[in-house]
Amino acid sequence: MFKTRVTSVIAHNLGFPRIGAQRELKRALEDYWSGRLDRSALLRCGANLRAQHWQLQQQAGLDLIPVGDFSYYDHVLDTSVLLGAVPERFGWDGGAVDLDTYFRMARGCAPSGADAPACEMTKWFDTNYHYLVPELRPGQRFALSSSRLFDEVAEAQALGLNAKPVLLGPLSWLWLGKARAEGFDRLRLLPALLPVYAQVLARLKAQSVDWVQMDEPILALDLPSEWRTGFHTAYNRLAADGPRLLLASYFGAITSMLDTVVALPVAGLHVDLARAPEQLPAVHAAWPQARVLSVGVIDGRNVWRADLEQQLARLEPLHAERGGRLWLAPSCSLLHLPVDLAQETALPRELWNSLAFAVQKLDEVVTLRRALAEGRASVRTVLEASTAAARARALSRRVHNPAVKARVAAIGPELTQRGSPYAVRAARQQAALALPLFPTTTIGSFPQTAAIRQTRAAWKAGRIGDDEYERRMREEIAQAVQRQEELGLDVLVHGEPERGDMVEYFGERLEGFAFTQHGWVQSYGSRCVKPPILYGDVSRPAPLTVSWARYAQSLTARPMKGMLTGPVTMLQWSFVRDDQPRADTCRQIALALRDEVRDLEAAGIRVIQIDEPAFREGLPLRRSEWPDYLDWAVECFRLTAGGVRDETQIHTHMCYSEFNDIIAAIAALDADVITIETARSQMELLEAFRDYAYPNAIGPGVYDIHSPRIPTVAEMRALLEAARRHIPDARLWVNPDCGLKTRNWPEVTAALHNMVEAARQLRAASTRGCADAADPVPSRHRAGAG
Fold first, then answer.
1. Is the pLDDT of residue 4 over 70?
2. pTM of the entire structure?
3. DSSP string spanning 505-559?
4. How far is 566 from 568, CA to CA, in rounded Å?
5. Considering only CA atoms, which of 164, 146, 244 is closest in space to residue 200?
6. Cα gap 364→640, rounded to integer Å
7. pLDDT score, position 767
8. Per-residue pLDDT at 533 exceeds 60
9. What contacts 459, CB < 8 A, 6 or more positions away?
10. Residue 706: active-site member
11. pLDDT exceeds cutoff 60 at 777
12. Which of 75, 130, 319, 706 is an active site residue?
């Protein structure tokens, strides 16, 4: 046993899920936006959730409670509002930013105020959480414009809590922002930004706050030298007079930034030892023992129960040297986890014993703190249970399937190849499909109406049988097909009424996945997802979508898309097993989906969409690790699509991605058509496809489906005209940004009517004519050219 100098260890948390164990915040937000709830009731819901979550963390035994991690939509948007970074189009005239201005920034509309295009939204590092991108401009001024953080600190203090306010740091906020002015370096705004941060810290100090958590997740990235200098500039200013600062990094190692971080005058440092355990020796050696070192030893992004004995073996020598200057925490905010495993009563007991959600993660942190401070004997029962769970998982037949492993081992390069190059395939597909110039389609899903949700819930609960369920779903599909034909869409979808979630639906029908009852996680705003738990080897026991696609195609002479979620997205949007390489798990999913693709083709489906919205999301934060990921991610997509004929058109869809730096990998997917989200970014993303001379067809989104606002024909046509500057007419598709399940039918009908009309106007105005449409590949991309 190690002899420690000081036994006290601080247990704390970086952030807690906001939505509530029963998604209370989601319902309150949507009721407020629809007018069913007034502002005071929404604010009351928020206050009640905060109090519940703070008290839960206090009762778990945490010494410091995060405050400011709650948000009515997004914490990056909260920071923008705090700093007064509100774009002019939202009509803000200074002073405190009101709630509806906040929601218009997020959604484009709110119960009051004029509608305006919402702020751009993109992924938070390599997670499935979306943040609102700060809009920056030369000469921008900042001003303290919200009191919500200070109000919440006062709320927590009134409950007797030791509050640790959480702020997104100035360097990370600037890095995550986007400057519209070409060539403008957003780092030049740092001098104007720092006085407002200093003002925030001064007010917190006046509230008797002792510690402030300054989140700087960009410390895990490869930063240019000027941004390293920016850290010195910022923290030499901010650490001078305010509360003590805990500089928090997560999602990766900070070893390349360690010299910079050590030189900063901050009182503490938090590092992520779940994502980057290898950084501990270097951080421990470099970080002064007189300052606090907070170690994120409990994984804040995955649901697996920790092996506490293993963690203690790592922590005990560290505690022996650092004593009370050692703090324990989850690796990052628990925002990315479901709230409480105790609600899950339907999971197999063996699997349940292997899991830990947000509440249980806090218990693990506190258990480790007690073991260090009071000795292992004080938590012996918990340690023994942890060890037994780890051993059972390693030996489980439910987890390990030798036949699946053998199939992965037999993968050869021939399985990842299409029969002919794109130029040949495109001509054959055009001959088979006879599509017009600027063909119109949607991304897959249509509104999930109350009737659809009720039918699905009744079926799952056993209140209606399989025959009645199928009859109702077929009625929904028939209505969706009829609406699309009336609107004049060229390539149709069946609307996915049978699918509650694009990952969950497939995972429920594949071996190796398990599903929770209440495992909801915030994706953005009120949008929550329930990620599958990918616990074991993956296989397909029976077809997944074929009968629905075949029925939908029987209703129309127009091409019907088969809709699949791709292997990388299935992986990224699940809680993935951590006992084998992610690449191997992804290959297992790809082989299962490959069987589905071939069955769809055999059923007469001529267009198959394999969605990969999470493709870029999976990129490691360090560029040095990109090649390995991109190699296996591309391989898995091609493995899924590789077995079809030239005449079968393969589509894919990607969400909120900056494509410039991975455009070669996207081209290597060799999808016949790629659809991407571009409406909020005004087609900026297409520059990468133009500069690379991307050879295949592209459908840039012309309709932002994340906002209830209905764009006009003129707006959509303007976006298409912008797209034509980047994409040849013969390879330009017309479609919304994403699936339409979250919208209602009146919105969808009006928006799609405008979209189809914009495409028709463009066809009428085009001087290219039908002859070009029959030759959809420019000469430099034809087989044997250049």
1. no
2. 0.86
3. HHHTTSEEEE--SS--EEEETTEEE---EEEEEEE-SS-SSHHHHHHHHHT-SS-
4. 6
5. 146
6. 39
7. 54
8. yes
9. 465, 466, 468, 469
10. yes
11. no
12. 706
